């Protein structure tokens, strides 16, 4: 019998409810770029802040010996010398039994069948179609291996990882999960850990937060795709409440219907590298992603063609965050409010280096960047952005904007401040001696900016 229960997992002891706040390509040209996760420029966190909080997945103590992720045939014909896991026939019942036994024995490496869909038909464990993960469990997929909820089945997510659980997914697709609660595809509760490698989390739905993944534990997403997931509140693709390491991945075409972080909502520490965040949408703010109170570094990545109904078409930074962007392209994003590319609200510290803000648009202010806090921009370019005021950058009355060796060119404002609009009381430091240029903007270059040419 189907036991359809929808207990609110994040409210369990030790877990925090996902935050609900009022804030919403390609990856070409990034091969070989170095991964940089340290912070430490200007007012940003000291070098190593993110590095110290994020631990490489395979170096965590207590993990079992995993079958090699290079083994392309997980059904017993592995390469010479390769450790193999336990084969699991193409049957949902067999997978359920294997996970149950693995939990009981303190861990397991399970080799799922290639060209197999493990079709789940019932909520068997507190809102999930598979047993809760309570030990180190590795699920190795193969060619076209997926785990999915049957379309006619009652609503449930695919997997829940509990305290002490350590789930690794290799070459596997998780799809079809749907819950009225949080974590449509996967829920990681406090004390749990999730790592995905060469895997896809696609077309999962949450009635709360985290359409694809909601994690209160440590999460590592490597060489994976999070796509076409949706949530009502925060994090259409991913909602990370603690620590997340995301590299060589795609966050594509996810959405939230009424709130923030179409692609991802980040609350804890984050290191994002060599990743494309594109085509995502938010019903409120942070179309690509929203960075809540967090220390976050984004390097060698693209945030392109995202949209929000309110602020931050590409990125929204609501309150209390420390964000560094290095070698990041922020382009073709759209905001129905302010900050087409990047919206920085009060009480944040943001550093931008070697970045490009191009062709972003905002119905209100700040086509490229809308800054209400303390933002430093170095060796970057803002061009071809559009907004009502401050098409390149809008700087608020209590904000400080510092530019070094930066070009603000060919931006177009409907009303005023094609390049930079500085509200009375705000501070803009151009540092023209370092090579900062504000030129060829329409209808003018600057408003209330000392040393800026007309």
Automatic annotation (TrEMBL):
<dbReference type="InterPro" id="IPR011050">
    <property type="entry name" value="Pectin_lyase_fold/virulence"/>
</dbReference>
<protein>
    <recommendedName>
        <fullName>Polymorphic outer membrane protein</fullName>
    </recommendedName>
</protein>
<feature type="compositionally biased region" description="Basic and acidic residues">
    <location>
        <begin position="57"/>
        <end position="78"/>
    </location>
</feature>
<feature type="region of interest" description="Disordered">
    <location>
        <begin position="42"/>
        <end position="87"/>
    </location>
</feature>
